[in-house]
Write a structure and sequence with these properties.
The protein is mostly helical. It is built from 16 helices and four strands. A two-stranded antiparallel sheet has the order 1-2. Strands 3-4 form a two-stranded antiparallel ribbon.
Amino acid sequence: MTDYDGKYREIGNRLIMQYQKEGTVPAGVNGPYDDKESIVRNLSHLIIMTAIEIRTFGRKELAGDLERMGAHLLSLRQPSGLYILRENTQKDACNGVIGHAWVVESLVYLYELTGKDRYLEAAGDIVSRHCFDKKQRLWHRPDYGGQAKAGTSIDYTLNHQLWFAASLAELNRTAGKHGYDSELGAFLDGLKRTMAIHKNGLICHTIYLSRDFRHSVKGFIKYGADQFYRMLKRPSYEYREQGYHVFNLMAVARLKEAVGEHAFFHSEKAGNIAGYVSQAAFLEGLSRSDWTSDPTLSYTNITEEEKCVNVYGYPYNVPGLELPYISLVLKPLIEEEAVKRCFLEQHARTFDEKRREMGKISHDKTVINYRVYEYYRYLEKKGRAQGH
């Protein structure tokens, strides 16, 4: 992918210059979900791109800009100590537990680059407002009253839990106090039940089974119904799961890098979910245009051009930009050729050569450009290996 590094850094640097000029970032609409977002998500992503430009590529002149972005991010906290991630009144404001996972991820980078305790303290305070259920080994959505109450609902979307765990693991590593070892260990142990996968290794979108009997009974029925619909070729979760598989793997790789050794990373399940990307079904699933097989999303505002591939894949979750980092962390579980094929397909599908930015066939042309930060994580990891 080396020949393409410059193109994606060009996007990152253009976004940094836009912030320098305007003092803010545009808000997206959460990809195909069409939920109006606040600027918090994209600002968090931009902070990481800026930090990596400084640390990996020696752009020390951006230090002042990083500080301004950090101060801006802190200024957006609500009286509860939390953030508004999306503004759809029909849904939670936090976007489950993943919304603050993005914020904590960026706060860790801010602390690492500046050494200022306020970023580490803010990250720790945000985490404290997400109650960890020791029985189910999952995190609750935060309470905007300012307290992490067990009464707030558990987020049963697997990728949300994985991403929150990944950000927590990075905070735990950077803080150096290992205060979250117990929660992280319990979460990883719990993946034996909470991460369900299909026979081919495809990761289930929903957490069907946990240590809560009532939830597990409901989950078992829901999973059985979904399998039945697949057999009948009726709408099911399969389409969405194919678009989210690598997004889940991205969090698993971050966890592996931050935590180090744990039995899960050597398990048969870990090998199966990594091996899925080398199967023909992987790229086929990302190229699916049969959007009517997805019963979970309203396609009213999605154009025909945007429906030409899996709307959750290349146009939103950028699997081709995530796999390079994943492959460096999860070697030798990820085949290099599979990474290359997906990357080239991602680039061809979504990179606009005339505009020199992401956005072709993407419903959310704003967020997809800020998600280039995930490729920056690959550039950072590669840079470390090369001694930068």
